[in-house]
Design a protein that fits this description.
- The structure is a homodimer of 191-residue chains.
- Chain A has four helices and nine strands, in the order H-E-E-E-E-E-H-E-E-E-H-E-H.
- The first copy, chain A, is an alpha+beta fold and 191 residues long.
- Chain A folds into three domains: 53 residues, no CATH class; 95 residues, Nucleoside Triphosphate Pyrophosphohydrolase (Alpha-Beta Complex); 38 residues, no CATH class.
- In chain A, the strands form two sheets. In chain A, strands 4, 5, 6, 7 and 8 form a five-stranded mixed β-sheet that branches.
- In chain A, a hairpin with an 8-residue loop joins strand 7 and strand 8.
- At the A-B interface, strand 1, strand 2, strand 3, strand 4 and strand 7 of A face strand 1, strand 2, strand 3, strand 4 and strand 7 of B.
- Strand 7 of chain A pairs parallel with strand 9 of chain B, so a sheet runs across the interface.
- Chains A, B: This is Nudix hydrolase domain-containing protein.
- Chains A, B: Keywords: Hydrolase.
- Chains A, B: It comes from Caenorhabditis angaria.
- Chains A, B: One of its GO terms (biological process) is ribose phosphate metabolic process.
Chain lengths: 191, 191
């Protein structure tokens, strides 16, 4: 089980906690729930942490998934076996929006979606889309049979207002909201 | 069990899926793992979804937690029983950073940290800190005995560079990275 070796990063000298009794309390096809006991190194205070983990991360993959920032478009998808994060981003962008990436600008390190609860992770992949290219004139999605995705193009500077004015029955991902706040406050704070 | 009623939002007319066989596969003190069968409304394609849920959300709370954007400071904490998101933000800001909030500017709707995996959620609460006030001259944290938090002040326009140059053994939360990207691209794209 990976559950025992997974804590190696937390056990280096920087980590303020000692972990033990790591055990799997539920093991499904896609997710695994775990429980571990911990003690603070500075004062020996003990506690229990329950967390959840995807069982689908390919060996050697840089993260569980990718987030794609392609000017006004942001999508997320899981990295397939044998794929790099860049390949996953180009594929997911095409499948979920129909747009073809013309250039990958950069890629982030692995970062964690909900670290108090899970080690589920993603890389950000920054892409450029050539809106004048022939293949991007009438983009057509290539969705899996169980996916339901609507593509919405929003001007960058209007993203926060767009999210704020959306129908309240639509749930927004925190990462997209955080991105919109970052853009909003960059305008206000300037340098 | 809340697991059966929780899907009411997904079952309204906007939702492209029909859900059934919702069951709890692990129930711990802090988290619950669930499994539900789904079928697409448009073509009857079936699938199974495993997910995880916090057991700690107070009845009537607007979200599981809060993220606080206080100029250069961002923290997250769980909403306690009987607290509003605003009260939780002011309390967590004080406990985790030592800073006293001088004004709450705004609050987001509930948004979801890792929606493919869990319904764990947060509100963003935008705070102002009076850096000239006496109580903010030598801020002192009030941490729980098992918390380990270091406060780092970073210039808003330098946040993405700061994250990119951090020691690779330090894991970054995706929401903070997304915020930094938003600020970065707002500068590049302008209006």
């Amino acid at each position: 089980m990976e559950s025992v070796t997974q804590s190696s990063k937390e056990e280096n000298n920087v980590c303020p906690y000692t972990l033990w009794d790591n055990c799997v309390v539920f093991n499904g096809k896609w997710i695994q729930a775990r429980q571990v006991r911990f003690k603070t190194k500075n004062n020996g205070q003990e506690g229990v942490w329950q967390s959840v983990h995807r069982n689908t991360k390919p060996v050697g993959a840089p993260a569980d998934g990718v987030s794609i920032i392609a000017k006004v478009t942001k999508n997320a998808g899981l990295i397939d076996n044998g794929e790099t994060a860049e390949q996953a981003a180009i594929r997911e962008l095409r499948e979920e929006t129909g747009y073809t990436c013309s250039k990958v600008i950069s890629q982030s390190v692995e970062c964690f979606l909900d670290p108090g609860l899970t080690d589920d992770s993603q890389c950000f992949v920054i892409c450029e889309i050539d809106g004048d290219a022939k293949e991007n004139q009438n983009p057509k999605q290539h969705l899996d049979s169980t996916e339901a995705i609507e593509v919405v193009l929003v001007e960058h500077s209007k993203l926060l207002d767009y999210l704020r004015n959306m129908d309240k029955s639509i749930a927004v991902e925190a990462g997209l909201y955080a991105y919109a706040y970052g853009a909003h406050f960059a305008k206000i704070f300037g340098k």
